[in-house]
Structure formats: structure tokens, C-alpha cells
Protein 1
Amino acid sequence: MIGQPISRIDGPAKVTGTASYAGEDHAFHLDAPLYGVIVGASIGRGTIAAIDTASAEQMPGVRHVMTHLNAPPQAEPDPSVPSLYSRAFPVLSRAEVRHYGEPVALVIADTFEQARAAARLVRVDYVPSNGAFDFTADLEQAYAPRSVNAGLAVDTAMGDLEAAFRDAPVKVDVRYTTPYEFSQPMEPHACVAEWKDGHVTAHFSSQIISEAQVAIASTLGIDKAQIHLRSPFIGGGFGSKLGIHAETMLAILGARAVRRPVKIHLTREQIFHVVGLRPATTQRVRLGATRDGHLVALGHEVTMSSSRHSEYAEQTAATTRSLYAAPNRLTRHRLVALDLTRGEDVRAPGDAPGLLAVEAAMDELAYQLDMDPIELRILNEPKLDPERGVPFSERRLVECMREGARRFGWERRPTRPASLRDGRVLVGYGMAAAIRMHFQGPASASVTMYPDGGAVVRADMTDIGTGTYTIVAQVAAESLELPIERVSVRLGDSTYPRTSGSGGSWGAGNITNAVHRASEALKEKLRDAPVVPAEGITCTGKVAAMSREPNYQAYSIHTYGAHFAEVGVDADTGEIRLRRMLGVFAAGRVLNARTARSQLIGGMTFGVSAALHEDGVVDTRSGAFANRDFAQYLIPVNADIPTLDAILLDGFDDKANPLGAKGLGELGTCGAGASVANAVFNATGVRVRDYPITIEKLLRGLPPLSPDAADRSLADANLREPHFKPEAQKRGDARRRQSH
Ligand code: MOS
């Protein structure tokens, strides 16, 4: 049963519309809710001098307008609480505006349309102050945080990087940049909240219910037991629902103020400003090697944006500490505090942007050495974790690269850049390694056997669309030796046993091991007392935090993979098209081959997106994101993603947990973008180091437009002289120079 590619057990509920999402209050048997609409600040930094709500309050249907002048007192976040997502999240708590779009008012009305119309009449007078909105302009202000995400070290150093790099016969010293990115799940953030007898019930869209409960309790200064949270179905999270945001706190505060259920959802545009973003980075990568390709120096220094009001340090250089052997090494994280929305985890935090730099720099080194990029990586494969000095629990990077190369036809790769053509299209092959940390967080689950022979699993675990319901049912069915139809899975409710939810790719490993342990205990109990009473027999299983698991100290536990991409670049227009892509991954035991593959191809798609599309652009005058919708913040559409496949090498990491399974939700995106970038270089000979690689950046390096472009035919295929330049074109160049 475990590993079988069975379809999602919640699929029928989803396709028939009976799966209830946060905004669908009718599903929750509440009184009819009122509707809340959030008014966001139209400046990036300053103070609210006056706020006039009179016109809004006089509009039909309006029940309440909340601003910082009448919002109830709330606690401030305590930075000593290790998890950002467990900290208080006060809203409308100050006259100060700390970033563009920060909520300044909430309008509650009988209908959504009434609330929206009234919200437009809220008049705010601001006293703006000078904000810092320009990351690149403030780079010299960078400071060292006390720790980076997940409590990891800010800096590490071994040997003498400077000296080793200076003396290395072959070296790469490059700066890559990555832009602001956003999680942007399909389902917007939403909450409907209702108070009864001092207790609040909130239906919201959450990745980690247990942390949300702590955050809400701290904000309001009430007991966790007074807060009932439900998030049974979630339309994607990607990090943006690890913590709560304004819609949840405002629905809760609004419902208490009007003594009616209140529903709020963020608009797509609001998500760009109210929910956290992935910091922009500039990353210096230094690779020093011997002439035969052994790394002697490896440096990865990251400077990223952060927010003045809430520090967030993405662990961008963290997996660089584990990826390749080199005696002299250095990693570093620095932050630039800006007046922007706070940073939060976005789709493979750290590893995704870090590998965009390191795995492209490795490609640059391979060309300098005139070496196959796979051979270069194999040559620098470490025997022990290079910085921790401990063995790897299961490291199958080389196997992933070899298997991928074989399946992809890597031997057909043109070794010289810009040497393969298909008509007017320059064709290139690229590869990159994938690595992702494996986390284990505390989790518990209960399994109850009923007299009818059916079992029910309960946990406050969330299924963010990844297939959690299904893998939990598979594990319980196998452990209990029941047909899967006899197992019901109930998730997403704070009254169920606590877990670390879904995030950081830890969800599957945590919950399935807790369920496995609960099921094993239950089986034991049933052996002793085979008659099941009417109320059923329940057992609970637990998984401890990795800090309490000796294996996580004694071993380096990661997941690995290798990406292969083939792109075509129009030689004249610079248009980049992914032609095909393959990822081969090893992440321990496969729990469900179908949902695992879906996770991985989704992650690879994010990688394509990071390489070629996504780019949050700040208006540096106002701190507003200029491209705050899906028309302008580009993400890949179906036409951008042709043949793409993910192969998962089944395994078993006996150091990670009893089921041998590790996370893989984010692995698919780690390194994926670099493989595309490396393919673009292989196609064109142009190395764009500022992501995303767009036409205008690429065109600067491409040879000028040739007048016969339209006439080129497939007869050009595999032409070895790509930069053919007839006389007529040279005249064209001269004309173009004149016009500039
Ligand atoms: Mo993930 S970005 O840790 O949900």
C-alpha cells in the first residue's frame, strides 16, 4: 500500500465541490457572515495624521469601520519566540505605516459589495517619511543577523578561503542576483470567524494550525483553549500560509466587534503587499579549483533584503555548506533593512535562490575547465558532510546525475556554447544538482478503531494540496492491515493532536511516522483486547523535533536530485523556450508515487519560473510592488511547460525515521532554475546573472538581428557556425547604432 500511486482520496470531494475552503462559509454551518474589506496604506512609510471614516460609515449596510483609533489592544510580536509564525500578529495597532499596503482600516458590511464600496470612501491623510525601498541602493547598509531561518548559523568558515582562492589556478568569482518573489497560492488567504461565549472559531487557510493558534492567542492575550481553528482543505500555501496574516486577525477582531461572523479574503493584489515575500538577493560565489577540477575554495556570500519592522533571514547559503567538498570554505548571510512587507518563506526557502547562484557558478567553472559539468560535480563529491564532518544518512546525488544523464541523452549535449541550431533556434542543454535539507518537527496523531472495523486518523495536520490525506490513509491502512477504504482521515482541526503542519517539506515525514507509530500501538492493543468497545479504541503516536533525535546530530540528512533542461532560444528575438526537462530525485522511501511525482513536477515548474519569469518589481519611490497581479507578475502557463518529467529513485533513509521517508515538496524546485539558466548559456554563450533571464537581458549578449532571419529553415539544424553575419546585417548594425 505504501508507495502505490493511488489517486487522492479527497479527489471526489474536491471535484464535486464538497471540500470546504476557508472562504466557503456555507460549508461551516455558521450564521450568515458579514463581509470585511481591508483598506491598505497608499504610502510606503510614514504616519497616519487623520483618518475619516464618516462617509464610509454612512454607506448602506455598513456595520463597523475599524482603524487604529478604535481597534482593540493587541500584543506586539516577541522576537525571542523562535518561530516567526508563532509570534503575535497585531493589526491596526499603530498610526505608523511600515510598508505599502499595510492595513489601515477594515470595513464590515452586510454584503461584500457594500463593504468594498464603503472601503473606497475611507479617507486617510498621511505624513510620509523617507522610506528605504531600493535594495541595490542600500547594499552597503547590510548587517549580520543573529541567526538565519530555522536557527541556522549566519556565517561559517573553514580553512582560508581568501588565500586558497587567490592561489587557485582556475577560478570563478561571480555575482548573481535574484528578485523579490511571492508564494501566491491559487486560493487567496481567507478567514471567516465567529465568537460564542468568549470562544472564537475561525475557518482559515493555514499550513500550520498549531502555530496559528499560538500566534492568535498571543495577539489577543487569551488562552489557546478559547481558539478553535479549522483548515480542512487548502488551495496551496507555498510558505505564505505558514503564518497568519491580516485577514485572519481582522476577521477575528471584526467578528468580536460586531458580534456576528465576519468573512474576509485578500484580493490577489493585496497578497502582494500583505503577505510575506521572498527577499531579493545578491550573491557572490567564489569557486577556486585545481586544473583537474578539484575545488580548493568555495565561497558563497549572500546579501538579501529584509524588513525594518520584522527581520527575516532566508538560509540562502545553507546547503552550500553540504553540497561539495573543498578544504577552504566560507558562507555568509547579510541583511539590508527596507520599508517593505516582511520576508517569509517562499517555495524552498534558501535552497531555491541559493542554488540559482551556486549551481550556475559551478556550470561556469565547468566551462572554464572544459569539463563535463556532471564530471566536475562527481569529482567534488564529499565523503563526509564537508562542514559538519558527519556521515550522510543517504546521499544519492551521483546516482541521480548518472541516471538523469542516461535518460535525458546528455551525451548529445553540445560541449561548445551556441553551437547547436534548430532552424532559427539556438538549442542548449543544461544540468544542475538539487539538494534540500530534511527537517523533522514534532507531530502527533491519533488512530481510533471502531467496532465496525473501520479506523479514523486524526491530526491537526494540513493538506495543502500535496496529497497528505492520501499518504496518511496509505500508511494507516498498511500498518493496521486494513483495506484503504476502511480508513478515514480527519485533518485540519485544532481539536485534533498537534503537529508541525505542512511546510519546509517536513509534513509527509512527520505525520506519516506519527500515524505509523499510533497504528502500531493500536495493533498491539487490539492483540491484547480484541473486542472493540462502542466508542472505539484510540492510540496516539508521536514524532519528536529533530533537535531531540540523535540521528539528526550524527548524520547529515538531506534529499538530492539532478535536473536536466533543454531550451531553445530564438537567435534573433532572444525568446527563450523550454523544450524539455527531466528531474531525477532521491528522497528516501516513496509514500505515493503519483502525489510525489506531482510535487516534483510542480517544483520543477517553479524552477522554470524562477529562471525565466518571476520578478517582483518595486516602485522605489513608493515601496509599492508595481507588478502586483498575474498579468504582470509572470508565472509559467501551460505553453511555457512542455515535456517535463520527474523520476523518483525509491529508497529508504533508515536514519531519518522508521518509515525511511523524507520530504520532497520543495526538492523539485531546488536547482531546477539553474539547470534552465545553464541550458540558456549552452544555447547562446550568454551568461545572464540577474534572474529572471528575460529577452532584454539576453539580447544584450546575442549577435544582432540578421535580415534573413525569417528565411532560415530546418536545413540550418546543427549548423556549427551560429553567428553568421552577412554584409546586409552589418549595415543593419550601423543603422541601429545611429539611432541610439
Ligand atoms: Mo514552505 S516555503 O516552508 O511552506
Protein 2
Amino acid sequence: MINLIALCRDANAIGIAGHIKPDGDCIGSALSLWQFLKKVYPDKKIDVWLEKPAALYDFLPGVKEIVADGAETDYDLFFVLDSVAERIGAAKEYYDRAKKKVNIDHHVTNPGEGDEYYVDPEASSTSELIYRLIKKADPDGTFMDAALAETLYLGIIQDCGVFQYSNTSPETLRIGAELISYGFDFSKLIDTTFYEKSYVQNKLLGFALSNSKVGLDGEFIYSIVTREDMDRLGATDQDFEGIVNQLRYTRGVKAAALIHQTKDGKYKVSLRSSGEVDVSKVALSFGGGGHVRAAGCTLSGNGEEMADMLEKELKKQIK
Ligand code: 5GP
Ligand code: MN
């Protein structure tokens, strides 16, 4: 395991980046590491490089102030969280120039990169890894408070489906138990960041479900949403979160795909599995990545042709 104090002690400028289109774990882990380092080293320059998080995260401690604005900086140390460096967008050039590079991730498709890395595919989330590193650096919890506990908890619940998915371990639950003892409103946090959807998102969900098709004798379900469909519903690229999970909750289904067209005409594929099929291998075969039960990739072509391609790859994985 890497040592946060040993890494940061002599660094004056520290960058923290997560993947493009940051999700709850990405945001939670970045804000948590930032809060902790800022408390331990109030005088250091510590920047978070993230694409603007969805508006629903606006209430989080520091979220509006901390996202780096592209100020010219040569970083002594640069953390890449919840991702490989290829997927950090605008932060990449700063990462490339940084003196020391550190990678913290839980994606099974990430072999680890940089000068030092901490990659554990068994962990529920990158936020769980950040918790472990903070605990190691600050065993007595001198720097832990409700705000830091809340962003750690946010990242964890987002990636383990509020302690439901199989990546939830006894340790994940013990960490959750400790974090809620700091006294933030965890029930509200779960409601607003995990379950609540906008009206448009719910309409999009209904559309995706009613347009879905099944293949492989009911073991594969997919739904294709074009730009035209999105325009008609008033939906954006950010409105798809959670829809593929609902497709996967179809009895008999081993793998689900939500395929939606992006601005450039390509298609973003989100894959989910019940656990019997490794969708990270399917995603990897199309240049994407992810986990056994949740993965993604980008394809181009005609909608139904892409569904066929996915189906062929899935068939190889279904034993
Ligand atoms: P989602 O379907 O929610 O976009 O992504 C599911 C999981 O797969 C996440 O862990 C995400 O980071 C990963 N993932 C999605 N798309 C890609 C991709 O194009 N490349 C890689 N390497 N990982 C992806
Ligand atoms: Mn994650």
C-alpha cells in the first residue's frame, strides 16, 4: 500500500484527477483525498481536476470551489483516481509533466501505472481505497470529520449500490458504519445522489425499457437510444445513469446493454452482468474496460449491427 504522508510531505503542488464524465465514486474519492490533504497540509497547492460534476453534487463540501480551472501549474505529484491516465481528459498534459505520478483504482482492467500505484479490484470503490490510505496515514482520525466522512461514504455507496452489489465486503460495511458515526445526513445523501431521478430521466428510463429487445434466448437484453430519441425526450448524455441496471433486473437476463448515441454520432455502450458473464472482457474486446459486472466501451456503426457485435462477444463469455 502506498503512503500518503511519505508521498506528499515534500510536494508543493499536488494534482488530483479522476476520469472524464465523473461518477459518484470518482467525485467522492477526489473530494475526499483533497479534503484530507488540505487539512494535513493547509499551505500546499492542491488542485482537483475533474469535469464539472452533475448539479446534484453541488451541495458537497468544496465541490464548486475546488475544481481546477486550468491554471498553469507544474505539479510535483499527481494522483489519478478511479481511472487510467488516458481517461482524465484535460488533466492529462499536467499529469504528463508532473514529477511523480500515482494511480489509485479498483478497476480490474487497470494493471496499475505511474511511479507508484495502489490498485485493488476487490475493493468496492476507489473511495474505499482512499479511506484505507487515510486510515493508514491518520489512524486516530485526527483529520476525519463529517464533511470528509460524507464524501467517502458517497463514493462507496455509489459504486456498491448502497451496499447491495457483490463488491460489498464486510470491510465495506464496517467502513460505512464508522463513517455514519460522524453524523452527516446519510439517508438524504442516498436519496438525492442514488435514487432520485429528474422527470426527464424517468421518461428516458421508460422509453429505454419499452424499446428494449432480447437476444440469446432471453439472456441478453439491450436498448438503443438515438440522438433523435434524446432530443424528443429532452434528454442529455448525463441522464442515462442507472437505466442499464434496470434493464439487467429482467428475470433470466445474464447481461444488459444500454447503447446511446453521443454528439459525435458514435455509440456509448454500458454493460451490466448478473455475475455469470464477465462483461469487462466484452468491453475490453472493443477497446473499453471496467469490471466483471459493470463495464463500457464506445462503438461506431449502425445500432442493430452493434447489438449483433455485442451479442457475439457475449456468447463467447456465457458458459
Ligand atoms: P458505465 O456503464 O457506468 O459508464 O461504466 C461502467 C464501468 O465501466 C465503470 O467502472 C467505468 O469506469 C467503466 N467504463 C465505461 N466505459 C469505459 C471505457 O470506454 N473504457 C474503460 N476503460 N472503462 C470504461
Ligand atoms: Mn469506481
